[in-house]
C-alpha cells in the first residue's frame, strides 16, 4: 500500500511539474531610431537570445509616429526601467568622436545602457568595403570583380582624412558654423565616376579637398597643431586615414559615395551577363526565356545594400558585441524578472 501511495505521489508531482509555468524569460525592449534601424539591431541582438532572455526591438513611441535619436534618448534616460528591461540603440553621428564635448555626447558615451554604432550610423556597416563585392554579386548574379572596392574606399578615406579632422575639431568646439558637415560632404562627394578610369574621380576629389585644406590653414593657422593632435587622439577610437569613410555622415556615404560606385558597376555586370546569354543561346526563344529568367532574378542594388549584413568582422561590430555581452553579464540577475 505504501509503495502504491509512493508511486501515486511521484506521478502527481511529475504531472504538477509539467503543468507548472516554465522559467520566465527576461524581456529587454530595445528602442531604435527609425524603421531602417530595426533590422540592423535585430541582427545584432538576436545573437544573444537564449532560454533566459529575449529582445524586442521597437520604435521609441507607442503613442505617436515620432522617431529619431532625440526621441529615443528622451524616452529612455528618465525612466527607472533603463538597464533592467530597457536599452537604447542609436546612431553615434559625431557623438562618439566628440567624447563628451556636448551634453548629448556625454550621455551616450557614459551610459552602459545606451548602445551606439561608433561609426556614424548603420550605413557605416552596410557600406563596409569588404562586403561590397558580395552586394554586387547578390544584385547581379555575376561574380566578376570590376573595381577593387576595398582599395578604392581606402584611398578615398586617405584623401578625406585630413579635412575630416578639421570638421570634427570645429564640432568639438561646439562650432557647427565655421566648417559645417554639409560643406565637408560637398568636398568629399564623388563626381563623374568612370569604370574605365575609376581613380580619376578620386584625383578630382583630392584637388577639392586640398583647396579647402589650404583655405582653413590660411584662415586658422593657430589651429593646425591642435587638429594634428586631435588626429593622434582619435586613433584610439578607430579613426585612421584608412577608416575615415566609416565615420562620415551615413547618408552621404551611401548616396554620395558607395552607390555612385555600385550603380555603374552593377549595370556593367548585368550587361556582361546578358551578352553571355545572347552568345550562348541556341535560338531566339531560348534567348528570351533565359533573359527573362535572369531579369526576374535580379535585385535593385540599393535594396541589396540596405539589406547587407556581411559586416560582422568589422571592428565596430565587434565593439558592439562586446558592449552587449558586458551589459548582459552585469545584469544577469535580472534574467528571470520579466514574464515572457
Question: Summed up, what is this model?
Answer:
The chain has 340 residues and is mainly alpha-helical.
The tally of beta strands, per DSSP, is 4
What is the rounded distance between the termini? 43 Å
Number of helices: 15
Strand order of the largest sheet: 2-1-3-4
Q: H/E series, N to C?
A: HEHEHEHHEHHHHHHHHHH
Largest sheet: 4 strands, parallel
Q: Identify the overall geometry.
A: flat
Structural class: mainly alpha
Relative helix content: 55-70%
Oligomer: single chain
The residue ranges in which pLDDT falls below 50 over 5 or more consecutive positions are 4-10
> How confident is the prediction overall: mean pLDDT?
89
Q: Return Rg in Å.
A: 26 Å
Strand proportion, as a percent range, falls in 5-15%
Amino acid at each position: 500500500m505504501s509503495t502504491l501511495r509512493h508511486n501515486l505521489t511521484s506521478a502527481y508531482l511529475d504531472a504538477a511539474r509539467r503543468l507548472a509555468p516554465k522559467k520566465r524569460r527576461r524581456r529587454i525592449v530595445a528602442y531604435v531610431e527609425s524603421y531602417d534601424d530595426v533590422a540592423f539591431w535585430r541582427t545584432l541582438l538576436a545573437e544573444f537570445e537564449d532560454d533566459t532572455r529575449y529582445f524586442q526591438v521597437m520604435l521609441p513611441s507607442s503613442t505617436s509616429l515620432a522617431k529619431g535619436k532625440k526621441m529615443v534618448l528622451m524616452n529612455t534616460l528618465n525612466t527607472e526601467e533603463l538597464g533592467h528591461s530597457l536599452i537604447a540603440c542609436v546612431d553615434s553621428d559625431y557623438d562618439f568622436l566628440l567624447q563628451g564635448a556636448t551634453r548629448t555626447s556625454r550621455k551616450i558615451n557614459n551610459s552602459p545602457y545606451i548602445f551606439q554604432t561608433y561609426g556614424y550610423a548603420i550605413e557605416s556597416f552596410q557600406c563596409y568595403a569588404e562586403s561590397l563585392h558580395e552586394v554586387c554579386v547578390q544584385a547581379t548574379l555575376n561574380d566578376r570583380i570590376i573595381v577593387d572596392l576595398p582599395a578604392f574606399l581606402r584611398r578615398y578615406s586617405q584623401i578625406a582624412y585630413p579635412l575630416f579632422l578639421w570638421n570634427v575639431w570645429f564640432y568639438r568646439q561646439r562650432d557647427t558654423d565655421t566648417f559645417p558637415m554639409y560643406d565637408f560632404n560637398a568636398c568629399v562627394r564623388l563626381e563623374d565616376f568612370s569604370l574605365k578610369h575609376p581613380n580619376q574621380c578620386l584625383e578630382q576629389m583630392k584637388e577639392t579637398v586640398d583647396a579647402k585644406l589650404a583655405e582653413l590653414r590660411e584662415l586658422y593657422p593657430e589651429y593646425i597643431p591642435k587638429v594634428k593632435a586631435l588626429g593622434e587622439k582619435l586613433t584610439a577610437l578607430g579613426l585612421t586615414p584608412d577608416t575615415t569613410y566609416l565615420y562620415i555622415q551615413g547618408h552621404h556615404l551611401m548616396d554620395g559615395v558607395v552607390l555612385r560606385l555600385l550603380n555603374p558597376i552593377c549595370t556593367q555586370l548585368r550587361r556582361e551577363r546578358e551578352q553571355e546569354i545572347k552568345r550562348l543561346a541556341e535560338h531566339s526563344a531560348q534567348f528570351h526565356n533565359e533573359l527573362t529568367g535572369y531579369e526576374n532574378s535580379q535585385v535593385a542594388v540599393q535594396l541589396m545594400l540596405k539589406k547587407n549584413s556581411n559586416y560582422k568582422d568589422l571592428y565596430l561590430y565587434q565593439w558592439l558585441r562586446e558592449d552587449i555581452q558586458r551589459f548582459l553579464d552585469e545584469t544577469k540577475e535580472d534574467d528571470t524578472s520579466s514574464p515572457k
